[in-house]
């Protein structure tokens, strides 16, 4: 019984997704996203979407879809391609936490 419990705990830890790190997302956003979307996701121009305050699940899915090619945009696909799953999660958490149009955390 104890061995089974330990085995289950080890497997759960192996498959657990790390929690999002907003500070890491902020740093990555400054490096990758700020030029178009603004440092906090509130783009200064209508040419680029405002992503501040957007739902984190939406942002994560959009980045994963750009990365996989399921969502087509040559610029965003290029920026999303090198992102890791953790970086996508961090970026989504950071931008979702910013004051914006849709949702406030």
How would you describe this structure to a colleague?
The protein is mainly α. Helix content is 58%, strand content 0%. The protein has six helices and no strands. The protein has helices spanning 2-15, 22-32, 34-37, 56-68, 74-80, 85-96. Helix 2 (22-32) crosses helix 6 (85-96) and helix 4 (56-68) packs across helix 5. The longest helix has 14 residues, at 2-15. The radius of gyration is 16 Å and the shape is globular. It starts with a helix and ends in a 9-residue tail after the last helix. The model is unreliable at 8-16 (pLDDT under 50).
Number of strands: 0
> What's the Cα radius of gyration?
16 Å
What is the SS-derived class? mainly alpha
Write down the secondary-structure element order. HHHHHH
Largest sheet: none
Strand content: under 5%
Oligomerization state: single chain
* Distance separating the two termini: 42 Å
**Can you give the helix content as a percent range?**
55-70%
| Cα shape | globular
Low-pLDDT segments? 8-16
What's the gist of this structure?
The chain has 105 residues and is mostly helical.
Q: What's the SSE blueprint?
A:
Elements: H1 2-15, H2 22-32, H3 34-37, H4 56-68, H5 74-80, H6 85-96
Helix pairs in contact: 2-6, 4-5, 4-6
Q: What structural keywords apply?
A:
105 residues; mainly alpha; globular
């Amino acid at each position: 019984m104890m061995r089974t419990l330990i085995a289950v705990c080890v497997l759960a830890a192996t498959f657990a997704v790390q929690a999002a790190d907003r500070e890491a997302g902020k740093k990555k956003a400054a490096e990758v996203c700020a030029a178009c979307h603004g440092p906090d996701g509130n783009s200064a121009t209508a040419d680029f979407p405002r992503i501040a305050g957007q739902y984190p699940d939406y942002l994560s899915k959009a980045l994963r879809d750009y990365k996989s090619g399921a969502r087509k945009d040559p610029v965003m696909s290029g920026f999303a391609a090198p992102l890791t799953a953790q970086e996508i999660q961090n970026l989504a958490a950071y931008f979702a936490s910013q004051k914006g149009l849709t949702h406030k955390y």
